[in-house]
Structure formats: C-alpha cells, structure tokens
Amino acid sequence: MRELLELAVPPYEGTGDWPAVLRDARVRRRRAPLAVALVAVAAAAVLAIALTGAPPSTLDRALAAAGDGRILHVVFDVDPAKTLVDLQTGASRELRSRHEVWFDPEGGLRDRETFAGVVQSDVSIPAAAVPGHAREIYGSLGAGYRDALRSGKAKVLRTGDLNGTPVAWIRIAPAHDVAVSRETYRPIYMRVGDGGTPILTYETIESAPLRADPVSTPNVFAESGTPISLARATAMLGRRPLWTGHADSVERVGDSVRITDGDTEITQARAPADLLPGAAGYTPPDGSVLLDGMAGLMRAGDLVVAIHAPDPVAVAGELR
To answer: Can you tell me the distance from the alpha carbon of 85 to that of 317, in angstroms, rounded to the nearest whole number?
Structure first.
C-alpha cells in the first residue's frame, strides 16, 4: 500500500494541446478540506493503479476531488477592487467584494455578496428563474464538471503556475476553463471567455441554505435631500459637520447630512452608517480612505464620511 501511495502522489504531467494563456491568481485553503481532498485523491490514485497498473491522469485526480454532491458551493472575489489608502504614507492596498454562491439545478441559486465580512446583498432565485448564463456557468462547474471529466469531454490544456501554486488548466466546455491545484486537484480559478476569477472555496454538497432574507442597502449619492441649516446639521450629528469651508447647499438625506461645494459632495453620519454602495456598514481604519472611483469613505472621529469628488483623497485632506 505504501508503495502504491508513493507512486500515486507525484503529479502526472501527461500531454495535450496548450493554447490557453491565463493570468495569475492565488487560492486560500482551509486545512481540513485540504486534508480531505488529499485523502480522496490518494485513494483514487491507489485504486486506479491497482486496477490498471498505471498512475491516474490529471482528469482522474480532478474527478476524485470534485465530490459527488448535487449542489455546487463556490466562493470567489470579484473585480473591480476598491482601494484603501493611508492618508499619511500614501500606501494603498486593494479590497474586493466576495461572492458566495450555492447552486442547485433543481432548487435554485443563492448569491450572497459581502465586503470585509459585511453583507451587501443576499439573493435567492428559484430554479425556473435562474438566468441562462448563470445556469450555464454554475452548472458546468457542478454536475457538468464531473460529467465532462468522466466522459472524456474535458481536456487538459497545459500545466503551469499561479502565484506559486502548481496547476493544470482543464477545458470543461467551449470557452470555459478551470485551473486545478496539482496538490488538491480542486478548481482554484475559472475563466469564461476573456474574464476570470480565483475560486477561494469549491465543493459539491447535498444540502445548502438556498433561502435568503433579502438585503438591500441605500445609495445616498443618488437620493434627493431636504435643505436644512448648518445649525440643524450640527444638531443631527451631535457636532459641527465636516466641510471644505464653503457650502453651496446643506441637506438632510435620511439620517445623514450632505454638504455640497461645487462638484464635491460630502455626506456624513454618526457611525456606523451605510454611505458607500458596495461597502455598506464598513468603516475604514482611522487615517485612511476607501476609494471607489470618484467616491471615498473615511472615519473622522465619531463620524463616517462619504466623499464624491474628482479627487476624494485631496478632499479628505482638506476637511475641517
């Protein structure tokens, strides 16, 4: 048995057609799923060697690691990224929204989006209403993926490296490729057409929480406001509002105050507040601003401040 396991572990390179050139990505693994995946792959390898006398192929290993549940569960980060900037040093790093998807061909689809752990949206779609494109993509990653591996329709395009992780690229449907780790043989990246994304979690399971309580967040930049005085704004916030020193208008928008100075809008509320679409309920660390296009979000004492301006960082430095 030991000899069979030692023979099974080294990756089988194989041959194939190598037309795909794909960008780098990184996978995050949890220790328990990794151990389970390695045991499954090793067991399949031992069985294949025992039956055929030959080491298992990349496709055999991928099939063994795919699981046999009817429900697909995947987690992935999406573009475009928001940028967190340190106002003192100028150092920046990217933050992305994360999608967690459960797809049951018969039960429907649930898609939950979070940003920095805060839920931004949570949507359940009945099976009959799942859009065709989503059904095609998630279907081909679930049962369709196993069918392609088992039937021989899947093809190994090439082997390579993604940010230090050895991978094999497999075409599972026209213009739909996945990269599988050559350690666990689970998918860690998917590419459809010209777009692609890292897969942080991949598993197939028998049951899932497909029903969600709807979540919606406001967009204060798009809401109309009611004119108020600076004195009233001060009373609302419990302190003098932050501004550039000039105000064309002062408005109340829900529980927040919006001050307009030319093409600059400064919306502020007591923390916590939902002021930036896609980052509702998130507050950046002190001394930093979260940028999303022409919008920025920052903490200022006990206030959360959203800035809409051609240069949010410059405005953040001018607030008084």
So the answer is: 12
